[in-house]
Amino acid sequence: MKATFKVLSDDERTRVHEESLNLLGKTGVRVDTALGRNILKDAGAEVDASSNIVRFPRQFVEDCLRMVPKEVTLGARKPGADLPLNGEDCTLCLDGEGPFVLDRHSGKRRKATYNDWKEITRVADALDEIGVYWCQVEAGNKGEKLGEAVQYLCDVQRYFTKHVQDTIFHPSHAPWLFEILQIIHGSTADIQKNHPMSTLVCPQSPLIIDQEYTDAYLALKGLNMPVGIMPMPLMGATAPASMIATIVQGNCEVLSMLCLIQAHEPGVPVIYAPALALMDPRTGGLRNAGMQYAVMGAAATEMARYYNLPAESCPGGSDAHQLDIQMGLEGAAMSLPTMLSWPDIIVGPGMLDGSMVASLEQLVIEVEIFRLAKQAHRGVVTDQQNWLVDVIDDVGPGGHFLSESSTLSAIRSDEWYLSDLGFHGSFEDWLAQGEEPLAATVNKKLDDILASHASLPLDESVENELDKICKRARACA
CB count, 10 Å around CB of 34? Predict the structure, then answer.
């Protein structure tokens, strides 16, 4: 039986849905994009032109929910790296755009550089557990200028060969992204079918659909591009001071954006992805390392399953400023509830200080936490061949099972996972091998990855076309 973490009953999930429908119909959402208001009005929503408040009739919301595909496969350039989002498996996604890194050589915090972005992206490409890209650090290469934006979109496709989930800044960037995807992934029909890229939209809390990023997303119409809807209500600040109320508000924000997306391009795949966060009452800022964050992440997955939608969840993380015991404690504790709720995508490995600081060492450590969590989720396998009562009977009292063929088979199976990160031998062996701390072991692993890993290269003809499009974009800037 698989091990799961569940926080909402069936009745509670239904009530979240009903309360959300009531709020969307009565209170509504402020929609700051004129294009979005017009799309919603034409589709049947109620638009107050004086306040930009849009109210969503119950039937309208439920009709939009029925339009969304219940399963989707996220494509990848790397063979075998496609991701079916059907609840069967789970993958990690990089976090989004921290401005700093923890330098792994000096141990000091500093502003992120392009080389940091490139190293993080390459390491993530090498780790099988990370199936989805998001821009982990803001290194100045993802600029709002057209030339910078186009160069960045090309570089992502070069260095990350699995699924890319990212955003564009402005509607004018959309045609360039169309062209880049066609150069690399084929025709528009191929892109519509295979979904090599998805995007994110982040409604503002409380209850606002913004103009800038929403209009940029709406400009992508025609690609059938999957979209993760990720509002970030902060419990106690931009959301009410209770978990269930924050869950309801986040659900409202997801559903309102889902309605806009379906009204704009019916049938586009949607990923249910609210980041239900926690305020630190002492500072008013984000408290990443709060168990409420992790529990609400699990609840978000349950609401995704309620709607039969793919789930992308954020478990919180560590507030630590360095690689220390606090980082280890919080990194593991915050991850497990969300991981055991088993979303399709889990966001956030490798970040410290409330997702402000990227750390390659932390990235490797949290990938290992994910492996251990997957083993916990696997639970106890009770297939008939695993009971081995006949083997117990054969060995009998006082014997041992070391020489049994069933033991040899078992330790080679998925049931037998032992981490190779850290030291797991005797104290004497540890002393004899130099008393190496975990951070040193992790850095050796990173050195090996960066020295040996090469992303799947693009064809020379593709590279030539990407160079041409980058030159054209710089000339237009």
Answer: 11
